[in-house]
Amino acid sequence: MDPNNPVVKLCAAGMAAEAEGRQGDAKTLFEQAWAESRDDFEACIAAHYLARHQATADAEHEWNRKALQRADLVGDDRVASFYPSLYLNLAHSLEKLGRTVEACELYATAASRLEGQPDTPYMQLVGSGIAAGRQRTCPIVGESHVE
To answer: How many Å apart are CA 48 and CA 120, to the nearest integer?
Structure first.
């Protein structure tokens, strides 16, 4: 990602605000990033962060869905590394809505999107989130970990 991109800068500032506990400021920055998005790539990034600051599980799900839709519209490799996290977050929002069968399916998709990704601490974190989600929502996967 280009650190000089205006939307990326706004999202970075939003993440810094989150880290400082300024959730309202973070949401405002992410909303500004969404408003200033000039293409599907930038909109994908902004929607991904906006999802975290929604008041309801339905709204969170909608923003996660928008992020994935916008990623699909990009049409090049700039978003390839986003997919595991996008599917993880969409699955988690479905899980919060009690839609566990759909969540399980999307956690599986997220896991398949990890293949070929670099082995970085971030991808390991995403992988852990996917594994935990599958444990919670996928009966066969969940049962295989229980002794």
So the answer is: 20
What letter represents residue 50's amino acid?
Answer: L
Handedness of CA 40, 44, 50, 54 (dihedral sign): positive
- Sign of the CA dihedral with 19 first, then 21, 26, and 27 last: positive
Contacts of 25 (CB under 8 A, 6+ apart): 14, 17
The pTM assigned to this predicted structure is 0.90
Burial of residue 55 (number of CB atoms within 10 Å: 0-12, 13-18, 19+): exposed
Say what the pLDDT of residue 141 is: 53
Asked if residue 8 lies in contact with residue 2, where contact means CB atoms within 8 angstroms, the answer is yes
